[in-house]
Design brief:
By secondary structure, this protein is α/β, with parallel strands linked by helices. Helix content is 26%, strand content 34%. The strands form 2 sheets. A 6-stranded antiparallel beta barrel has the order 7-8-9-12-11-10. The protein has a 5-stranded parallel β-sheet with strand order 2-1-3-4-5. The longest helix has 21 residues, at 222-242. It is elongated.
Amino acid sequence: MSQFDMGKKIFFLYPPIDFAKKTLRKLYEEGYEIYKIHNTEKLKPLLTSFPDALLFINTDYRNEDFNLNDFINNDLKDLSLVNLKVFAFFQQSVTFSDMFQDYVSLDQNDEELFSQLKDLLKDQECHGKREYVRFGSYREILCRFPFQCENQKLEGALHDISPKAISFSCESDLEPFIDKNVSDLELSVGAYRIKVSGILSQKREFEGKPLYIARFISQEYEEVLFNFIFTSLEKKMDEFIQNL
C-alpha cells in the first residue's frame, strides 16, 4: 500500500467501540498503523497479504461469529500465516489457544490498558522508522490542490501526508520559495477536505523529478490531520479487503 517503512500492520478483530475510540486511537497517534476488522469473511487472505502483521482477536465474539472458532483452530495453523503474531483480548470470556502469543484483558483502566498494549507493540517491533503514520507514497497522487506562495496562486500534486508535513510535486519551480510560507493548501481525499498552511522546507529528487516538503507551522492542524490520515488509511484498507 505504501513504500514508506510504516512498521507492521496491526489488526484488531471486533474491537468494542469505546476501546477503539480511546485506546486504539491513542496508539495510532503514537505512530502505530492500526486497522479495525469487523468480520472474518476475508480475514485469511487479508493476513496472507501482510504475513508479518499482528492480529488481536476479541474472543468475546466466539459465540457470535461461528467462523471465529474455525479460524482460530484451523486457519491460523496454515503455513502461509507462520509469521503472523496473534493475541487475544477480551472483556468477559477468554478463549485459550496455543496460537495466541498473549492475552489482554479490557477489564482494566484506560491508562493500564494503553500501557500494556504499547509495551506489547514495542516488544514486537511494530513501530516504523517514522514518528507518525503517513498516508500515500511518492509514486501516487492523492489529489491535486491549489495553494499560494508569495502572493502567487499555484497548483500542487499531493503524494503523502503526515500530521507534521506533506510531500508534493509542482509544475512550477518552487526552489526560490524554500523557507517561505505556503498558505491555503486545500487538500481532499474522497469526501474528506481540509485547508492548511505551512513552510516550504525542502526540495528532494525522486526518480529524477523534484519533490517538495511543506511542514505545517501550527499544532492547530494536528487533530484534523490525524482524522484525515486515519480515515484515509481505513478507507484504503477497506477497498483493499473488498477486492480480495
